[in-house]
TrEMBL record:
Organism listed in the record: Carassius auratus (Goldfish)
Domain of life: Eukaryota
Localization of this protein: Cytoplasm; Nucleus
NR LBD domain mapped to chain residues: 3-222
The organism's taxonomic lineage, starting at the top: Eukaryota, Metazoa, Chordata, Craniata, Vertebrata
One GO cellular component, as annotated: cytoplasm
InterPro entries referenced in this protein's UniProt entry, alphabetically: NHR-like_dom_sf, NR0B1/2, Nucl_hrmn_rcpt_lig-bd, Nuclear_hrmn_rcpt
Alphabetically ordered keywords of this record: Cytoplasm, DNA-binding, Metal-binding, Nucleus, Receptor, Repressor, Transcription, Transcription regulation, Zinc, Zinc-finger
Stated name of the protein: Nuclear receptor subfamily 0, group B, member 2b
Family: Belongs to the nuclear hormone receptor family. NR0 subfamily.
An example molecular function term from Gene Ontology annotations: DNA binding
Protein's GO biological process: circadian rhythm; negative regulation of transcription by RNA polymerase II
Gene that specifies this protein: nr0b2b
Amino acid sequence: MRHPRGLLFSILNRECDGYPDTRGCHCQRLVCLRNPETTCRVAFGVLMRTIHFMKSLPSFRKLALRDRLVLVEKRWVALFLLGLAQEHVTFEVRVVPAASILRNILMSGRQKPDERRPTLGGVHRLKTFLNTVWSLDLSLGEYAGLKSAVLFSPDAAGPRSSEEMAGLLQTCPTDQRSLTHLLFTASALQTEAQSLVTELFFRPIAGQMDLHKLLHEMIVKQ
């Protein structure tokens, strides 16, 4: 079986097939949501339900607060993307005109071109990932099992709880663990997609708010 990390890397870093000349900067063109008010509201709802899902799991609630926060840090992006797939959320983007970018830089005096800003290529890879998940035609139960397996996969935990996490993973159905290893490892997904998800779906409504701080508050709140 192909290594899961390699599979995820292939999914998320696939060349932009729709853009024949990447040297022509098609994939690197900056984009933003076409309908940010609607899409960001839907995305925030998915995020809320993602956190609620985590908090609803008995195995999650039994963990020490420190370990719960570690899991949220390491897994929220992966579970959020699975939430987008489960709810069949679709979205469109538009290219940000270069003149608008330059005007913002000149007017603010502080803004700089940011490598983390969403690009056409990044969105293409994200949609490719969602289409890959949709092609599996998972049931609600399968989504729940897959999310649980991703959440409790061993590499999510710190040194103090890695053995406990490995034990929790054994409670997930074998076929769901296989799906998890076949599709991706959540740590790689977090690395590849966190900036894109944050900047595309949440920055338009959250501004410079610390999203991780918000997630921590949602976990701590009873």
